């Protein structure tokens, strides 16, 4: 009997008592702006709920919210006893994915809430990252970067969110493995109101300071190779411009010497004339 009733109500708009609608346990959004909800409530008071909520029916006969958390909360603020709903034949997993999709499309989630929601889909619902990328329309690298944010402690995430720092600030902190140093970097970033670029420079300095002498030496060799390649490219550019430039590089135990000889302009003009 219950099953027949369920089939009859699928995909129809029904007025359901809001007291019969249970919250979605997979709702990824944790924080709701009261002023924003108040504005939505006044709009609903004046115009009604223009877009029905989506719910799924439980075995108990109650309904579980799939999409429309803000509308339901706003309706409760103004004392609506019944709200328009579409009852869908939706599984628990589909409900979880739908809740994440709705919030992502409306850009209602902050980046930590988004990361937590994605991690839940992967761990609790055993969704592979490839499948998740397809459903959400995200690149694999984007999904991986989101999930990496959860390596930050709960306390650190709270401080980052409270300070209004960007996702790039948070990702920059992941370069530091030591928790104490990571917290120190975050404190400096917040106290000095550092930009992303300034934060990355600070973190790079802290990492260099903690490097072993051997690693510092290897980094120095790498930097020298970059400089030498830059000089070689500069000489090649001069030659392509028609100037007969010459370069000589020599190395000793103490230094690298790089000499570039460029003929004077008069010599170049004289050669071109002949």
What is the share of helical residues?
55-70%
Number of helices: 13
| Unreliable stretches covering 5 or more consecutive residues | none
Q: How would you state the average pLDDT, rounded?
A: 82
Beta-strand fraction estimate = 5-15%
Distance between the termini: 104 Å
Silhouette: elongated
Task: Please tell me about this protein's structure.
- By secondary structure, this protein is an alpha/beta fold.
- The protein is built from 13 helices and 7 strands.
- It has helices at 2-9, 34-47, 69-77, 92-106, 111-123, 129-136, 140-148, 154-162, 167-173, 179-192, 196-209, 213-240, 265-273, and strands at 13-17, 21-22, 53-57, 63-67, 82-87, 246-251, 256-261.
- The chain has a 5-stranded mixed beta sheet.
- A hairpin with a 4-residue loop joins strand 6 (246-251) and strand 7 (256-261).
- The chain is elongated and about 90 Å long.
- 20% of the residues are buried.
């Amino acid at each position: 009997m219950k099953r027949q009733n369920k089939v009859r109500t699928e995909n129809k708009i029904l007025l359901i008592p809001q007291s019969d609608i249970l919250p979605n346990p997979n709702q990824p959004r944790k924080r709701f702006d009261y002023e924003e909800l108040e504005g939505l409530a006044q709009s609903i008071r004046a115009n009604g709920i223009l877009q029905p909520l989506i719910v799924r029916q439980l075995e108990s006969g109650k309904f579980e919210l799939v999409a429309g958390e803000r509308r339901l909360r706003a309706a409760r603020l103004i004392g609506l006893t019944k709200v328009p709903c579409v009852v869908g034949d939706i599984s628990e997993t589909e409900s979880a994915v739908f809740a994440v999709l709705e919030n992502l499309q409306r850009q209602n989630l902050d980046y930590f809430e988004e990361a937590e929601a994605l991690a839940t889909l992967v761990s609790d619902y055993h969704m592979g990252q490839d499948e998740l990328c397809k459903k959400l329309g995200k690149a694999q690298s984007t999904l991986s970067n989101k999930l990496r944010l959860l390596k930050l402690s709960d306390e650190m995430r709270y401080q980052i969110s409270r300070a209004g720092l960007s996702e790039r600030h948070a990702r920059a902190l992941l370069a530091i493995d030591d928790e104490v140093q990571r917290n120190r970097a975050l404190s400096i970033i917040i106290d000095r109101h550092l930009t992303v670029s300034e934060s990355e420079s600070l973190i790079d300095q802290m990492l260099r300071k903690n490097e072993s002498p051997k690693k510092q030496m290897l980094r120095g060799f790498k930097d020298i190779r970059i400089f030498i390649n830059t000089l070689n490219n500069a000489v090649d550019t001069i030659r392509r411009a028609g100037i007969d430039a010459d370069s000589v590089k020599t190395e000793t135990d103490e230094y690298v010497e790089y000499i570039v000889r460029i003929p004077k302009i008069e010599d170049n003009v004289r050669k071109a004339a002949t």
